[in-house]
Amino acid sequence: MSTVDPYAPSRETTEGTVFSVTGGDWDSLVQEIGATKEERVVVNMGPQHPSTHGVLRLVLELEGETVTEVRCGVGYLHTGIEKNMEYRSWTQGTTFVTRMDYLGPIFNETAYCLAIEKLLGITHDVPERASVIRVMMMELNRISSHMVALGTGALELGAITPMFFAFREREIVLDLFEMISGLRMNMAYIRPGGVQQDLPTGAIPKIRDAVAQMRKNFKDNSTLLVGNAIWLKRTQGIGYLDLAGATTLGITGPVLRSTGLPWDLRKTQPYCGYENYDFDVITADTCDVYGRFLIRMNELEQSLRIIEQALDKLEKLEGAPVMVLDKKIAWPAQLALGSDGLGNSLNHIRQIMGTSMESLIHHFKLVTEGFHVPAGQVYQGIESARGELGAHVVSDGGTKPYRMHFREPSFNNLQSTAAMSEGGMIADIIAAVASIDPVMGGVDR
Amino acid sequence: MFGAHGTGDTSGYGGLLRTVASAGSSERPYGGYFDDLADDLERAYPGFSGAIERVVVDRGELTLHVKCEKLVEVALILRDVLKFEMCMGVSGVHYPDNLGRELVAVYPLLSMSNNRRIRLEVSVSDSDAHIPSLVEVWAGNNWHERETFDMFGIIFDGHPGLTRILMPDDWAGHPQRKDYALGGVPIEYKGATVPAPDNRRSYT
Amino acid sequence: MGLKMGLEEKIPSGFLLTTVEKLAGYMRKNSLWPATFGLACCAIEMMAVGSAAKYDISRFGMEVFRASPRQADLMIVAGRVSNKMAPVLRQIYDQMSAPKWVLAMGACASSGGMFNNYAIVQGVDHVVPVDIYLPGCPPRPEMLMDAILKLHEKINVEKLGSNRAQVIQEVELAAMNATPTHQMKGLLA
């Protein structure tokens, strides 16, 4: 071509011709690429792309439509959360971790709080009601997270309707979250030693109604997708990753269970009293995108079962404490929320301000400085919606974490993109990435 | 009871300098499955006493402090003989006051066959921060080691492509080390002047 | 699209301009197409606005989130912008065709939010000009819709040509004459 195309200028490099496509006329670009007589094309995809699940960048090497190499570029959402937490008290840390994997805030908080409780040595002092509420919240969160995974996954493969159904269900869960914690997302509801506040009055019947409603609604999406010929063509045999590959890459969660291994930390290394609930670990043996889709669909029902059992337990534990009794650790949480929306009841304020100087000092110190955590390090893994979420916490004995590190399942599982998609077609990368369900907030932290 | 040590600064802008007392090594019996595990490891690995500096059992978790040069050997034995199929990544920790052992890499391992967990710890000096890479042993460590390099500057020898992963390629420094400031801009609500956007902190 | 794009070069002056302004504003505000620029938590709430039947942004003719910046005229920066992402964000903004507007959704996009550290740009206005800031962490879907409707109002009365230059001058003058922050007393006055 003699004239320079303003939308697709090209330049020569040692690696070959590089085209910078910024939109506009694709015809001239195709012409020019056709003239290079080379089949191999390297294409950059993302970080702003509608089908890459957030700000994921993929560098693809293509021979025609076949993918020969995939490289992931991550870090576009790196937030420095781990570093920032070293400058805040242990309780304030929950507000940071909740914003990491923003589809699974409750999982982040629980992993973090369980790790702190292990460091404090109060794992067995956490009241049962708090543990049951944690389990219920985690399972609700699993539903809302799987709903986004299914909805966006379907959307990325070109099916729009499942997205509407999925977000309808997600809204039901978010309404429950709002009723319980006051926030739809990023709740910071699980706190070291318990939960931030007890369930509001009338919560249990409302959750029961929601569970019944969701059980009915889930059928909409399964009728749409399970066995759907187009869906099968896009997902069956795509994104293959077997057990050996998953193990060496450290893959956990639905992707690991799609290889047929029933590995679920809720069963194998129970926490928060998961051993007292009756539920099944869902597996598939197809090692492909369809298997992972089916696992997520079926896990929804298992989550509903756990929630129902948790509600039965909560009814028996009505009025029990939701925070450890040790006042040196317990955030002043057992307070009724006033009608003005302020946290402390007037009686409490009157007591600490008027009668007990020590209470006032205690309250002030606990809130401004926080509690001390004995020196040491622990690792606590829990089964989040995406796999093993591990919190590695190091304390120096102070009121702030010395080092926080999260082993994020999204970060780890995203490594399998290359193993899943190399040798396949370019369109199948989207399916493979969607089936991993990476959340970039979790990947980059 | 709350005893504020040092400045008691909670804002973080005063800089953080803290010393950490490392836990001493534990004596047998370790309790639980840890004794079995240690026995198995000693049987399978004749060089145990030469490679393992310390065994620490704390809060129901077993930590092996491994000599840097023996790390790959120990890892292979743990993977092949003791069935620790998975490595849950790498977590770097920076102890600037622990001279000669400033940088620590922590590897939590998981055995799905035996449902056990163990932790490996390797420490190196800041001036010679080289640790052999475990990517050949557990391929999933690839990104984790890149992240630890990015954040702490630990160089993993033998890694197939040790580049920055989270920070931009041209970033200077390793942000999660203790000698790296938190960054950001100081915030004042009263008496503050907000400069025009083109005069604010520049991002280089 | 004829009235939306390339209008500024061909506008008349005088009282005819006011008429054109009204017409253009009306049309622009009712055909706003947002670009998908989902970054973090806020993006999920943005998706809820787009696809949950409860919120349903198609009532305002905006349900078609465009993946290509070339086809969009509203950029909703939904989430924290890292230093690594900032150049990408600016490139996408530059690719959008004028007239274009930017909505900084959430505390992080507006000011850096709680992440005042090495990784996060302290407010997306360091990188692109922002038309409307939306607080919240994350803002509720209703808040996003409210912000978009407020932006509609702004677009509706937006001036063109010489009138616009005059408005810009007035705004600058007002900003220069305003009480500096450090002299503001707030409730202490």
Q: What percent strand of chain A?
A: 5-15%
Judged by helices, strands and strand pairing, the structural class of chain C is alpha/beta
What is the share of helical residues of chain C? 40-55%
Cα-based radius of gyration of chain C, to the nearest Å: 18 Å
In whole angstroms, how far apart are the ends of chain C?
Answer: 51 Å
Q: For the largest beta sheet of chain C, what order do the strands appear in spatially? A: 1-2-3-4
Tally of individual helices of chain C = 6
Q: Kindly report the oligomeric state of this protein.
A: heterotrimer
Rounded to the nearest angstrom, the distance between the terminal CA atoms of chain A is 46 Å
User: Uncertain runs of chain A with pLDDT below 50, 5 residues or more?
Assistant: none
Largest sheet of chain C: 4 strands, parallel
Shape of chain C: globular
Shape of chain A, please? Answer: globular
Question: What does it look like?
Answer:
- The complex is a heterotrimer of chains A (445), B (204) and C (189).
- Chain A has 18 helices and ten strands.
- Chain A is α+β, with helices and mostly antiparallel strands and 445 residues long.
- In chain A, the strands form four sheets. Chain A has a three-stranded antiparallel β-sheet with strand order 3-4-5. In chain A, strands 8-9-10 form a three-stranded antiparallel β-sheet. In chain A, strands 1-2 form a two-stranded antiparallel ribbon.
- Chain A is globular and about 85 Å long.
- In chain A, 54% of the residues are buried.
- In chain B, a hairpin with a 4-residue loop joins strand 5 and strand 6 (116-124).
- Chain B has helices at residues 34-44, 48-51, 71-80, 141-152, and strands spanning 52-58, 61-66, 86-87, 91-94, 103-111, 116-124, 130-132, 155-157.
- Chain B has 204 residues and is of the alpha/beta class.
- In chain B, strands 1, 2, 3, 4, 5 and 6 form a six-stranded mixed β-sheet that branches. In chain B, strands 7-8 form a two-stranded parallel ribbon.
- In chain C, strands 1-2-3-4 form a four-stranded parallel β-sheet.
- Chain C is globular, with a radius of gyration of 18 Å.
- At the A-C interface, helix 2, helix 5, helix 6 and helix 18 of A face helix 2 and helix 3 of C.
